[in-house]
Amino acid sequence: MSRIVLVLLGLVAAAALVALPAFGGLATLNLANKIMIAAVFALGFNLLWGQAGLPSFGHAAYYGVGTFATIYMMDAIDRGGAFPTPLLPLVGAGAGFLFGLVAGWFATVRSGVYFAMITVAIAELVSALAQKWEGLFGGEAGIRSIRTNWGPLDFQSTGSVYYLTLVWTLIVLLALYGLQRSPFGLVVRGIRERELRIRFLGYDAHRVKTVVFALSAAVSGLAGGLLAISDESASMVLFGGAGSAFVVLNTVIGGAGVFLGPVIGAALTTSFAYFGSSLSHFWPFYLGVVFVVTVLFAPEGIGGAILARWRRVRDGAGPLIGLGDLAGLAGAVLAMAGLVLLIELTGTICSEAYRAEIASLKGVWPPVRIFAISFAPLTPWPWLVGLVALIGGSRLALGAGRPILPRLFAGRPGPRADQTRPGESA
Amino acid sequence: MHPVLKLVAAAVPALALGVAAAAAEPVKVAYLTPKTGSMAFIGAMYDPTIDFVVKPFNAAGGWNGNPVEVSVYDDQGTTQGAADRFKQAVADGARIFIGAGTSPLAAQNLADIKRWNQRNPDDPAILLIVGAEGVNFTGADCSYYSFRFTTTPYIRQNALAKVMKETGALGQKVYSLQPDYTMGRDMEAATVANAKTYGYEVVGTARHDVFKIKDFSSFVEKARAVAPETIFTAGGGSDLQLILQAASSAGLPAKFAGMFLDEPGNLAAAGPAALGNYTAQIFNAQAGGEKGEAYRAAFNAATGRDPVAFMSNSLITLTMLTHAMKQVPAAPKLPIKALITAMETSKTPWPLGDLSMRADDHQLQLPLVVSVVSKDAARKLDGTDMGFKPVKLLSAEETSMPVNPECKMVRN
């Protein structure tokens, strides 16, 4: 693929992003905002994980601190403060940075599992504090504020928030890309690969790790600030474990080794959660399946798979999509359909609503509608069809001992046992 | 008549009916509740209540021929999810929101509603809070556009203390053991505030972390040291079960008085340790006499289970909403302000007595049942030989607490 095609693609994407508010509804714009916020958060997390090889499982703490700090600043603006509204995310970033500096100094004394445990402990500490300190964190009700216009700039509509978020997302992307390519970024990656060697070269590894931690926390805090601007509220729920878990999920699914991987992951899981929750109440289960499949068969994530595939096409080593890929894809779709059928059937007949229907029909089990088809849950057929589709599809996708799926994702023949995931090298 | 004519004669009114039905614009109601995540049990509890109220209302013509369409939105139990679902529901055309989650979720819903109304004063939306008991919703955060359809810890503590005092079960020495979050802190404040009114002494207070402690024996021993006769708690779920078990196995002679003992599964999990403890209930079929029993039977026939805990609050919310709608005259679009007025002024029949919405702070005025866990209860729960035996049914006037002075409602 030539450079011109890439530039053209970039221009089309940019035009689409700028024009989105013109044809997207309120819900679409909100989704776009949430995707960008999740992407910035995941990028911040991946600075620590992908670049420095430090797996933090408590990043919600810095995200939440950024949200709260920004809400307080918004409130100050509302009461006549002079801070410009468009620069609000910097407040979140600053709060995240300061907190990250302190937390990072302690956490980075250790690496690997011990580091991860310290980050979890710090996140739990903040979470417990937020629950008890009602004056600062607003208790159960949380705290609220409202966006204030700044000069000629109006920030009342979702569209204006979209542009603000878009600009900040691009700034973060460029800054992080620059950081990655800078000499400092090289030292950080050096620490990931072999910390001892970096120390022998004369670098203070602990100081570098502390700074990276603080920068990562700052980007997470900035994401939190963007959330504050979008939702205009903050509550202690932000500090819960779900936030810390989702950012790991986004990064793993998207690919930690690729710069834009976390963005891809954030876009996929956020859209999935957004639409999935109105389609099926079992969407977290499906997301879990996607996560497990990714870890097992494509540890480099979707971003890694795309990159590998693009390299293969560029080197002329294979076509963009081969016959085997199509078979694997068909198998994966079949297996997913079978799984969805089984899960939805089980879930529906176990639900309160279904129990109510049985009661109102005086004990008759009504048919269950899935994929716009009615299934009778008391006959063995739907269960058999689901099982056959799941097993058959999986076998097709995995190619009976000759895995097609890994090749589909990794873009190379055969499983790759040699690769190390970030965080394992420490 | 010619067969073809017959067919036409039959088809014309049918078509006309079809046109009329198509012209009827549904009144969209968004029901925001957690359906996934660690709080999914809350959403599951509310599911059967929606059809039970809305189906007969629509069958009887709905709002002047317009059916009410309730859509459930899954807020995933997070404030961010709640904010997202609000934006989605508003985009879908809903202007009536039912917030059926915990206090943080209801606070998020309320903030979203307030800002929507601030930005769209000609197209306002209202929030009906089903289960959030935070004092702020009818206190500092009270709003013309939001209504609370449950109690506060103050209302429940007051009802418990009143009835237990009358029957002599309360005693002189009272202890407060609370979960350490807003509701527990409110319950503690209520327990302390009512000491003079009901002539007891608060001999001690303690708070515990929520859903983190597995062994409550140290809390039980701390309480035993001051020998209380009654212990007030706002604890729920596994916390409450573990507290009851710890107290029972340590032989603590005090009674517990709480608000969440009738959540599904609590009696079965606590076992005989639950016996003799008091709870303030929203609904108890036995206390409602024939009417109460008929309501329970109708609900059971339609849904396969009895209404318990916050399910009753959802039933009350939907019943009062549909009842108020009947009083709003026909218009091209449901006028929200007329609905608010109807909500404030109408009395809604309910098996335990009339329900009304106080205009000053939009706090529901409702009858409460103070019950004791007993083997003599008319209905046994959760497959145990225990149930809730009503001690006294308090009317809406008796349970009412004064308007929170922090509530400064702007009526526009």
UniProtKB/TrEMBL annotation, chain A:
GO terms for molecular function: branched-chain amino acid transmembrane transporter activity. It is a multi-pass membrane protein. InterPro entries: ABC_transp_permease (IPR001851), LivM-like (IPR043428). The keyword Cell membrane applies. Its main location: membrane. Keywords: Cell membrane, Membrane, Transmembrane, Transmembrane helix. The chain crosses the membrane at residues 31-49, 56-74, 86-106, 160-179, 208-229, 283-308, 320-343, 381-398. It comes from the Bacteria. One of its GO terms (cellular component) is plasma membrane. The keyword Cell membrane applies. This is Branched-chain amino acid ABC transporter permease. It comes from Prosthecodimorpha hirschii. The lineage of its organism: Bacteria, Pseudomonadati, Pseudomonadota, Alphaproteobacteria, Hyphomicrobiales.
Automatic annotation (TrEMBL), chain B:
SUPFAM superfamilies: Periplasmic binding protein-like I. Residues 1-24 form the signal peptide. GO terms for biological process: amino acid transport. Pfam families: Peripla_BP_6. Keywords: Amino-acid transport, Signal, Transport. InterPro entries: BCAA_transport, Leu-bd, Peripla_BP_I. Residues 26-375 form the Leucine-binding protein domain. Belongs to the leucine-binding protein family. This is Leucine-binding protein domain-containing protein. It comes from Prosthecodimorpha hirschii. The lineage of its organism: Bacteria, Pseudomonadati, Pseudomonadota, Alphaproteobacteria, Hyphomicrobiales.
